[in-house]
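The freezer alarm interrupted the setup, so I double-checked each line after restarting. Inputs confirmed:
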Amino acid sequence: MSEQAAANGEDMHIDPQRAKLLAENLNRVTQRIQSVSNGRKVRLIAVSKLKPANDILALHNPSSSHSSSPGHLDFGENYAQELTEKSHLLPCSIRWHMIGALQTNKCKPLAEQVANLYCVSSVDTAKKADALEKGRAALAERLASQSSEGVGNLRVLVQVNTSGEESKSGVELSEAVELCKHVREKCAHLQLAGLMTIGAIARSQEASGPDGVNEDFVALRSTRDKVAEALGVEKEELELSMGMSSDFEAAIGQGSDEVRVGTTIFGDRPARKDAKLKEERAET
Ligand SMILES: *Cc1c(COP(=O)(O)O)cnc(C)c1O
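Predicted 3D structure, all chains:
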């Protein structure tokens, strides 16, 4: 099989029933987003971590399952290796979002190897930003030498630990301005696209309805405003990425520009050790 066929997912089996279920789930989430966003544009990242590439292809390329809806573009992954492997199996028209905790030594290879990496949502140290910068710079140089179309700057979000929990990644609220400045001033191949938080589960449960007020989302928004002021940019230039399956409506109500939804679209995830990169066709 040619590399091209593999990269288009042409050889991949899509179960029509599974594709239908996923499309329905995605549509329902899209409708829920629209009903609370008052006409504002909110990006939906379909979080596909630990789910097979077939599921992603079914949503990205619905023509392969005889659906009339346009393909979904934004997919989120938590593990650098899984994202890289999936990117090699799937069409380059996908916009990949790395949303999981980053290891510094994985940053450069990730940014260098995945040309359609659209955003890294979880930058929480200057070292990681520098490593992503090196990787994207190397990618840009390689593509330029192949005289292909080239590549734009890699979008990054600075992850903020708004809840102060030790188990959560992210910079402290008080360190966000400094890290954002670092990205803007020291990383020529990165674009500071905004801020991201996960937040505490308890706060999310208390404020999960569309009118709920979650302190973590309040904190991210006010940190964004401070960052914008410190950098001398308009607030609107810095997006807020907040909201997951359990609280995306509340997050949008509090100004989120991007929600990351996994379970509500793809169902429960397998344990990491049981996850399959690709689902093979069932024997009949
Ligand atoms: C897994 C994950 C999500 C999606 O969570 P669900 O509850 O399945 O919607 C969102 N954001 C981050 C950072 C995640 O790791």
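Quick read of the result. Residues 47, 49, 78, 99-100, 198, 244-246, 260-263 surround pyridoxal-5'-phosphate (CB under 6 Å).
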